[in-house]
Amino acid sequence: GQNIDQPTEMTATEGAIVQINCTYQTSGFNGLFWYQQHAGEAPTFLSYNVLDGLEEKGRFSSFLSRSKGYSYLLLKELQMKDSASYLCAVKDSNYQLIWGAGTKLIIKP
Amino acid sequence: ETGVTQTPRHLVMGMTNKKSLKCEQHLGHNAMYWYKQSAKKPLELMFVYNFKEQTENNSVPSRFSPECPNSSHLFLHLHTLQPEDSALYLCASSQVERETSYEQYFGPGTRLTVT
């Protein structure tokens, strides 16, 4: 079967750095997405990785290793507004998105 | 209006009611999606429409019936729902070219409670 694993919840301190991991087993791979979802709001697109390596976008970076079936989202200089759920999703061989359950990130002052 | 809009934002219905959820995208995309989001569970893809044709139906019960009259509008018709259908229903759209689909843009969702 297809599976996306990510931690249920993480806690970090304002101003610090946090890494949210995502591992996947899917039938084929055509890219990996990270989305941010604030409570009661729509998920919003953060990043897309299809090749191995690190993609940096401001305070957020996303890393992919296809051979290990692994990705992480790195958030630097954490702000209170970064408190949200972070969803990992993989596009499989049929170009359909397989979603993880999301990681709830709690930022403390 | 910009992006993806959904109405209503909240809906409480009895198990014998019939209601419809509406989604509209203002992004010029050619694919639209219905998802179910339950607490602490992955997003569940329910239906996909590419170029107004339904291309995916992930074993969704017949009490959920989608309708896509054009590439900008998507409906989810609900009837005789069960309490376990209570969830956040999200609509999304994306651009699909050949076999590649780009990132999806989500609406704010409809919080559905079945009593």
What does this structure look like?
The complex is a heterodimer of chains A (109) and B (115). Chain A is an all-beta fold and 109 residues long. Helices cover 0% and strands 57% of the residues of chain A. The model of chain A has no long low-confidence stretch (mean pLDDT 95). Chain B is an all-beta fold and 115 residues long. The N and C termini of chain B lie far apart (32 Å). Chains A and B meet through strand 5, strand 9 and strand 10 of A and strand 11 and strand 12 of B.
Brief account:
With 109 residues, chain A is mostly beta strands. In chain A, 0% of the residues lie in helices and 57% in strands. Chain A starts with a strand and ends with a strand.
Keywords:
heterodimer, A: 109 residues, mainly beta, 6-stranded mixed β-sheet, 57% strand, globular, B: 115 residues, 7-stranded mixed β-sheet, 4-stranded antiparallel β-sheet, 13 strands, 0% helix
Question: Quaternary status of these chains?
Answer: heterodimer
Q: Spell out the helices and strands of chain A N to C.
A: EEEEEEEEEEE
The helix/strand series of chain B, from N terminus to C terminus, equals EEEEEEEEEEEEE
Task: Report, as a whole number of angstroms, the end-to-end distance of chain B.
Answer: 32 Å
Query: What average pLDDT do the residues of chain A reach?
Result: 95
Rg result of chain B: 13 Å
Rg over C-alpha atoms of chain A, rounded to the nearest angstrom: 13 Å
Mean pLDDT of chain B equals 90
The percent of residues in helical segments of chain B reads: under 10%
Distance between the termini of chain A: 40 Å
User: What structural category arises from helix and sheet content of chain B?
Assistant: mainly beta
Strand content of chain A: over 45%
Largest sheet composition of chain A: 6 strands, mixed
Main sheet summary of chain B: 7 strands, mixed
Inertia-based shape of chain A: globular
Largest interface: A-B, 21 and 19 residues
Envelope shape of chain B: globular
Number of helices of chain A: 0
Low-confidence stretches of chain B: none
